[in-house]
Amino acid sequence: MVGLKEELLKSIWHAFTALDLDRSGKVLSHNLCTVLNVPHDPVALEEHFRDDDEGPVSNQGYMPYLNKFILEKVQGNFDKVEFNRMCWTLCAKKNLSKSPLLISDEDAFKVWVIFNFLSEDKYPLIIVPEEIEYLLKKITEAMGAGWQQEQFDHYKIALNTSREGLSAWELIDLIGSGKFSKGMDRQTVSMAINEVFNELILDVLKQGYMLKKGHKRKNWMERWFVLKPNIISYYVSEDLKDKKGDIILDGNCCVEALPDKDGKKCLFLIKCLDKTFEISASDKKKKQEWIQAIQSTVNLLRAGSPPPHKEARQKRKELRQKLLAEQEELERQMKELQAANENKQKELETVRKQLEAAAARAAEEEKKRLQTQVELQDRFSLELEREKLVRQKMEEQVAQKSSELEQYLQRVRELEEMYKQLQEALEDEKQARQDEETVRKLQARLLEEESAKRAELEKWHLQQQQTIQMTEAEKQELENQRMMKEQALQVAMEQLKQLELERKEALEQYEEVKKKLETAANNTKSWKDKVAHHEGLIRLIEPGSKNPHLITNWGPAAFTEAELEQRQRSWKGKKATSE
Asked: Where is the PH domain (predicted)?
C-alpha cells in the first residue's frame, strides 16, 4: 500500500499545485473520493476547509486531511486510468504548452502518467536524464527505429549543465517536438507511446490475437488476449470493449506445449487449479513467445517478485541512490582532505619557521667553527714546519744508504738479466722450429687437397667430354646437368685458387719462421761469450751446417742432409738400447 500511496500522491500533487488559492480544494477532494471509491465525509471536509488565517489550501493544511480521510481508505478497487485522467484534467489546461505538438492530447496524457511512474520520489517532481533515456529508448524501439545515442548524449550534457531533470510538461514538449522521432508520422509515434503506456502503467506484459477452445461448445473462437502480472484477460477485439473472460494466474499454474490435433496447429495448454485452457497461436514463433511470457509470469508469482519493468525501475532508483551516496561520501572525503590539507599547510608553515630559526643558529655556529679552525690551522702549520726539517735530515741519511745498496743490487740484476735473456733466446729458437714443422705439415695438406681437386677436375672434364658425345635426344636434359657441373667446376676452380692463396700464405709464414729461426740463432751466438765469461758451464747452440738445404715440392726443407743423418743414427741407437 505504501507504493500505491506514493503513485497516487504524484498525480494528486500535479492537480493540487494547479489549484488557485481559494476553496477549490473541495472540488479536488470530492473528485478524489469519487474516482477512488472512498466514502465522502462532508463534516470532516467542511471542518478542514473552514476559513482561517492559515489559508484553506496549503501543503501543511491539506496533506494531513488527504492522508487521513482519503488515502488511508483506498483499497485498490478503482480505475487507475480514470483516476489519472481526473488529475490530468485539473492540471493540464494550466500547464500544457500552447505551442503545437506532434502528439495528441491523449498521447500527452499517457506521457504524463508515464512521467509520474518514472519520476523521483521528491517534490517538485522531476524525471532524471537516466529515466528520460530509458523512456525514449522504449518509444524508439516500439517505433522500430534506431536509437540515436550520440544525439541524446549531447542533449544530456546540455541538460546536466542547467538542471537535474525535466518536469512533466517539459518531457511532453520534448517528445511532442519530434526531436528523437524524426522521420516518423504521428500515428507511429502514437502507437509507440500507447505500447509503452500499456507495458509500464497497465502492466501489459504481452497481447495479441489467438484462438481459444470453448469449455461448453468445444469450438474455436478468435480472441484478443492481454497478459498481466496475475491475469490473462481475453476480449472479442483489441478495442477491449467486450470482455469474454479471465484466466487467473498464480504460482500453481503451468503452461505446456501440445501437439497439433483436430486441424489446429501451434497449440499450448494453460493449467490452473479449477480450469484448463487450450489455445492456438498463429505460428510457432508466437506460440513460443506466449509460452515463455506466461511461464515467466508464473515464475514471478511463485517468487513473489514485482513485474519486470517495476523491478527494473526500482533497481535503477537504488543504483542512483547508491551513486548519490557514493558522491556525497566522496564530497565528504574531499572536504576532510581539504581540511587536512589546510592543517598540513599550517604545520608546514610552522616547520618552515622552525627551520629558518635553526638555520640562523647553524650559521652562527658555523661562523664560530670557522674561527676555531683558522686558529688550529695556524698552530698545525708551525708543527708541520718542524716535522719537515726532521724528515729532510732523515731522508738524506736514507738516500746515502740507498745508493750503496743500489750499487750492490745493480750487479745482481745484471747477472739475472743475462740468464733471463739467454733462456728467452733458447725458447725463441724452440718455438721457431715448432712453427716450421707446423707450416711444413700445412703445406703437405694443401698439396694433397690441390692434387685431389686436380683429379676431380680431370674427372669432371672427362665426364663433360662423354656428355658431349651423347645422342641429340638426351642433349637437352644433359645440357642442364652440364650447366650444374660447370657451376660446380667454377666453384672448384675458386676453391683451387683459394688453396693457391693459402699455399702462398703458408710459404710466406715459412719464410717468416725461417727468419725468426736465423734471428734466434744469431742471438744465441751473441750471448755465447757473455755466458762463458760468467759461468763457463753452458754450451751455446751453434748454427747448423752451411751445406745446402734440401728442396722439396713445398719449398726449402727444415733440416740439411747432415742433420737428418745425425738424427737417424741417434734414433737407431735409442731403438737398439731399448731392445
From this structure: 203-299
In the prediction, which pLDDT does 61 show? 63
Region of residue 183 (phi > 0: left; psi between -120 and 50: alpha; otherwise: beta): left
Residue 9 grid cell: 500522491
Q: What kind and span of H or E run contains 332?
A: helix 308-468
Say yes or no to pLDDT of 38 above 60: yes
Question: Number of structural domains, the chain?
Answer: 2
Residue 127 DSSP one-character state = B
pLDDT of res. 212 = 92
Q: Residue 463 domain-assigned?
A: no
Which pLDDT score, from 0 to 100, does residue 434 have?
87
Domain that holds residue 9: 1-95
Whether the CB-CB separation of 281 and 298 falls below 8 Å is answered with no
- With a CB cutoff of 8 Å and minimum separation 6, the contacts of 286 are 208, 210, 266
Would 244 be classed as within a structural domain? Answer: yes
Return d(Cα 80, Cα 287) in angstroms, integer.
31
The model's pLDDT over 391-428, given as tens digits with 9 standing for 90+, comes to 888 888 888 888 888 888 888 888 888 888 888 888 88
Chosen domain end from 306, 331, 362: 306
Type of residue found at 288 = Q
In a domain, 15, yes or no: yes
Record the pTM.
0.54
pLDDT in tens, 78-93: 888 898 898 998 888 8
Q: How confident is the model at residue 548 (pLDDT cuts 50, 70, 90)?
A: low
Boundary (domain end) residue, out of 306, 324, 345:
306
- Residue 204 makes CB contacts below 8 A (sequence gap 6+) with 198, 226, 227, 228
* Pairwise CA distance, residues 244 & 235, whole Å: 5
Residues linked to residue 264 through DSSP beta bridges, in sequence order? 261
C-alpha cell, 397: 741519511
Q: What is the pLDDT of residue 50?
A: 60
Burial bucket for residue 374 (CB in 10 Å: 0-12, 13-18, 19+): exposed
Nearest to 131 by CA among 187, 196, 86, 75: 196
Q: Which three cell numbers stand for residue 374?
A: 683558522
Q: What is the C-alpha R_g of the chain?
A: 59
Q: How confident is the model at residue 285 (pLDDT cuts 50, 70, 90)?
A: very high
Residue 448 lies in a domain: no
The CATH number of residue 273's host domain is 2.30.29.30
- What are the two backbone dihedrals, phi and then psi, of residue 141, each rounded to the nearest 5 degrees? -65, -40
